[in-house]
Write a structure and sequence with these properties.
Blueprint: H1 5-15, E1 25-29, H2 33-45, E2 49-51, E3 54-58, E4 66-71, E5 75-77, H3 85-107, E6 119-123, H4 131-141, E7 147-154, H5 157-164, E8 169-174
Parallel strand pairs: 1-2, 1-6, 6-7, 7-8
Antiparallel strand pairs: 3-4, 4-5
Helix pairs in contact: 1-2
């Protein structure tokens, strides 16, 4: 049980101490809750902090079904879906426009960090299905980082195994079998608004 996200960040910092002051390393937080982890973590490890924003690309036949995901810098589509290139390009353009607006809320006019040849540490306040993290991993891999690390306080065992296979290093403080939701492992788990996290 973590007292709050700041407490979880402190515990993660201990597991990530080999990256303290490491040249060419960067922390990428998944908003919103992940930014509450990423900010104190970046301060303790003396590393730069940025965010990774992703949004699903919906199927043209069912908006609830994700056929892929897009970020500010790229996109990927599951090859199992037979979707026209025209549709995908149109959706990606629309998603990236909305992500640009959201990024500006957090970072002002700063440009997203270059990730090529860097050690990228992706953080969130916990994983449930892991779908958002999987999307972030796939999109970051397109930028050719030197090393990809995922660090989270808590995840169910099945999700932990799935994510660990996709990255160079996976750090998770707890993998409880009685997992229902991320919030159950925090004493304080308040909803985080975009306004609270502006200009990280």
């Amino acid at each position: 049980m973590f007292k709050n996200r700041f407490h979880a960040a402190e515990l993660l910092a201990d597991k990530l101490k080999q990256y303290k002051n490491k040249k060419g390393a960067i922390i990428l937080a998944i908003p919103r809750g992940g930014l509450e982890i990423g900010r104190p973590l970046a301060n303790q490890l003396h590393l730069p902090l940025d965010i990774i924003l992703t949004k699903k690309i919906s199927s043209p036949r069912n908006s609830e079904v994700a056929i892929g995901s897009a970020s500010l810098s790229g996109f990927f589509v599951n090859p199992d879906f037979d979707i026209s290139e025209e549709y995908v390009n149109r959706e990606v353009e629309s998603i990236q426009q909305s992500l640009k607006q959201r990024y500006k809320q957090y970072k002002g006019n700063k440009k997203p960090a270059e990730l090529k040849n860097k050690t990228v540490i992706i953080v969130d306040d916990g994983l449930a299905t892991g779908h958002t993290m999987e999307a972030a991993i796939e999109l970051i891999k397109q930028q050719l980082p030197k090393k990809l690390v995922v660090a989270v306080p808590v995840a169910p065992p099945s999700t932990a195994r799935k994510i660990a296979k996709r990255v160079d290093e996976f750090i998770c403080l707890a993998t409880p079998f009685d997992f229902v939701a991320v919030g159950q492992f925090y004493e304080e788990f308040e909803q985080v608004s975009d306004k609270m996290l502006q200009k990280c």
